[in-house]
Design a protein that fits this description.
Blueprint (H helix, E strand, L loop, with lengths): L5 E7 L3 H17 L3 E7 L3 H4 L16 H9 L4 E5 L11 E5 L8 E5 L12 E3 L3 H10 L4 E3 L5 H9 L5 E5 H6 L8 E2 L14 E6 L3 H7 L5 H17 L7 E8 L2 E9 L6 E8 L4 H19 L8
Parallel strand pairs: 1-2, 1-3, 6-7, 6-8
Antiparallel strand pairs: 3-10, 4-10, 5-8, 5-9, 11-12, 12-13
Helix pairs in contact: 8-9
């Protein structure tokens, strides 16, 4: 609890979604700490600057966070708010993810003029540049053409209006945070499309030695979310890879423990391996390691390429 007037500079990307998320966090922090003033600082990242390169073609994972982390390290900002799915597993030693606010709806969704994904005419074009989504949705509709697409939500939706694509795949969380959930035609179940690691979760980052800021941020930490996403990130550390690898993992509370699901595949062949398992908290880390190793082993047996790290 902040006991006297304090200021915290919160860094964020400048996209409409990033600003909506940062503004929400600003309000939540100020509500949690009487006397706290949060100032937003917009930082342009390489992923925002380069709008022509496909996301899975960038040379490194983390193109939406590296400049923000540099601003933290330099002292330009006190804290940062990220979409967790953009944060690589190799967190700089000088920084820490201090809090994970309550997760939004983690599902992938389909947006169109009203036609559901499974009802699209054969050969329809669907906008998504995500190998993770493509390899899973090809299993449902191998006749669909998947087209790379970039830009903010309104830009992507305009592609439907122009007739460039019959529909697009987006994250439910982003649309909900922007107040645009009404455009969703339908939501994919986890059986149809496992979300990206960290999808729908925000991460609040600060310098590891900054106890003042860490204590401010931790007020927004939601334990169930934190436990789930940390298991997903553990899986990512074991398996390796980034947005160019067609893989996913998602954990959520299930009874007294967790249900964990993971998938990896090959876009070119359509081969896919999926594992789903429930376990108790005391066994969680060992179970996730086992799932990762089992997934990699099955992929190798099927001739599915695995990340170089693995």
């Amino acid at each position: 609890m902040v006991t006297k007037k304090q200021r915290l500079i919160l860094g964020s990307r400048g996209s409409p979604l990033a600003l909506a998320q940062a503004t929400m966090i600003k309000g939540d922090l100020e509500a949690a700490h009487k006397g706290l003033e949060v100032q937003l600082e917009i930082i342009k990242t390489s992923g925002d600057t380069d709008q022509s390169t496909r996301l899975d073609s960038f040379p490194a994972f983390g193109v939406f966070v590296k400049e923000i982390q540099a601003a933290l390290l330099s002292g330009r900002i006190d804290a940062a708010v990220h979409s967790l799915k953009d944060v690589p597993e190799d967190e700089p030693e000088e920084l820490m993810l201090a809090a994970f606010p309550k997760r939004e709806d983690a599902r992938d969704v389909f947006v169109s003029k009203g036609t559901r994904f499974l009802d699209l005419p054969k050969g329809s074009k669907v906008g998504t540049g995500s190998p993770r989504r493509i390899v899973q949705l090809k299993a449902l509709r191998p006749d669909i053409q998947f087209m790379p697409i970039r830009g903010n939500v309104d830009t992507r939706i305009s592609k439907i209006e122009k007739g460039d694509v019959a529909g697009i795949i987006l994250a439910a969380a982003g649309l909900r945070r922007l107040g645009k959930a009404s455009v969703i035609t339908h939501s994919f179940s986890f059986a149809e499309s496992i979300p990206a690691i960290g999808q729908a979760s925000l991460a609040l980052e600060c310098r590891a030695n900054d106890n003042r800021v860490r204590d401010i941020l931790v007020a927004l930490d939601e334990p169930f979310t934190a436990d789930a996403v940390q298991l997903e990130r553990q899986f990512m550390r074991v398996v390796g890879g980034g947005c160019s690898v067609p893989m996913a993992a998602h954990a959520y509370p299930y009874g007294s423990g967790f249900r964990f699901m993971a998938v990896m595949g090959d876009v070119s062949t359509g081969k896919i391996v999926r594992i789903e398992r429930a376990f108790e908290p005391e066994n969680a880390e060992d179970e996730v390691d086992d799932i990762a190793e089992e997934l990699l082993e099955e992929c190798r047996a099927k001739g599915i390429p695995t990340p170089k790290k693995a």
